User: What shape does this take?
Amino acid sequence: MYKYEIIRRQKIQYVVFLHGNVSIGYCSKDRKKGPNGCICRKCHKTYTPSKLLYPIKRKNYNNDSFIAGEWEDLKRVLENAYILTIFGYSAPKSDEEAISLMKTAWGDNYKRNLEEIEIVDVKEEDELCLTWKDFIHSHHYSTCKDFYDSWIAKHPRRTCEAFWDETMELKKVKENNIPKNCGFPQLWDFYEQLKKAE
Ligand SMILES: [Zn+2]
Assistant: This one.
């Protein structure tokens, strides 16, 4: 219960750029980031464009301060996560270093006995389980081939609450599916309603 409350309070929702991003810049002094060309809210200097890490064998995630910071953020979030959704990432052998960093942050899967791993991938369940076995505790996982069948698409911004209610409190939670086939303005409206209630 304690772990769940932390997640409810923190409502951590942000994007990390683990290999840099052509559109993202940063201020190393103030540890802020934003679109390239924008200025840092603290020192008012223009953001430095982030470097890109290309898919080479040894990427040395610590060589660049921006990318190292992004990995630190990911580790911090993974340590406290209740659900981990893996979407569009096949964990290729060439990414050994990245997977090992994620595994260190996630920790011992035998101690993550409340957490859930959700994998959105067109591959078969057996293959996905094998790929992610070091992260999965017992049967605490689900797979789906379509993003819209995932927990985050069926219960946007309430995913952890809905999952807890269904699996721990045994309550049936009504789905609030992300609308399909619409543009960003409609999606922004949809999410705004949810945000207002928060
Ligand atoms: Zn700054």
Observations:
- Residues 27, 29-30, 32, 40, 42-43, 45 surround zinc ion (CB under 6 Å).
- Residues 65-80 form the longest helix (16 residues).
- Confidence is low (pLDDT under 50) at residues 1-10.
- The chain has seven helices and six strands.
